[in-house]
Amino acid sequence: MTPRTIVITGASDGIGAAAARTLAKAGEQVVVVGRSAEKTRALAGEIGADFYLADFADLAQVRELAAKLEEKYPRIDVLANNAGGIMGKRTLTVDGNESTFQVNHLAPFLLTTLLMDTLTASKAKVVNTSSGANSFGKLDLFDLSAEHGYSTNRAYGTGKLANILFTSELHRRFHDQGITAAAFHPGVVRTNFAAESGSPWRHAYTTLLNRFMLSPDQGADTLLWLINGTPGTDWISGAYYYKRSLAKANPQAYDAELARGLWEKSEELVKAFV
Questions:
Q1: What is the rounded distance in angstroms from the CA atom of residue 200 to the CA atom of residue 184?
Q2: Backbone φ, ψ for residue 273 (5° rounding)
Q3: Which of 52, 73, 150, 156 is catalytic?
Q4: pTM exceeding 0.90
Q5: Catalytic: 156?
Q6: CB neighbours (10 Å) of residue 175?
Q7: Distance of CA 66 to the CA centre of its chain
Q8: Which tens digits make up the pLDDT trace of 120-150?
Q9: In what order do the strands lie in the sheet with 239-242?
């Protein structure tokens, strides 16, 4: 069989790197995207993959990434939007958006929509890494920059909730053009996920507590299952998964009007600084 072209963001470490190694070993054409030049280059060299660098806190870099991917790969079979992170105190990006919301939602939203012509032509899968933290998110379309009532945990949870709403709306808008989409919770994985943040969560990831967490390979299991499975048979497009099973999400995740509104607001925000 012809190898699939699989683009994985946030692939320099953690579950993204674990998935990239497994897929490359299986003979797929893996394209790794990361923020750290050193880590991303090292992984790409290890598995023989192409790599690109982009910091999702800067939407200009996301646009540049999309242009390079579109030029190099006429076909993209899978886009795994895996990049994300938790921040500390409220900060704004160079684009004027709250950092957590941009890195976790707006940047992957922009990347996906910029690649839509290639993705629809390829009948691609889009897999979005969410989190069980979506349960303590609260999405307010009139306060997407979290000017009121900001907290580190709520901001992260809201970004992960946005991933699920994006997935369902992506399915609604583009399923009839061949796109399938899923969001998933990888579990609590032993990675450098929060190590560089000012978040209290960094202590859990850098202390003895991390011995009780999943390994990156374990955390990548559902991601790989979605990438390798058959939509409509193994999993349902537009849905949210945990441990290869449909999972219950924040009640807001099932609000179709909220999903539509988030898409429209996201379009406005990513176009504001073109």
A1: 24
A2: -120, 30
A3: 156
A4: yes
A5: yes
A6: 14
A7: 15
A8: 999 999 999 999 999 999 999 999 999 999 9
A9: 50-53, 29-34, 5-9, 78-81, 125-129, 180-185, 239-242, 245-246
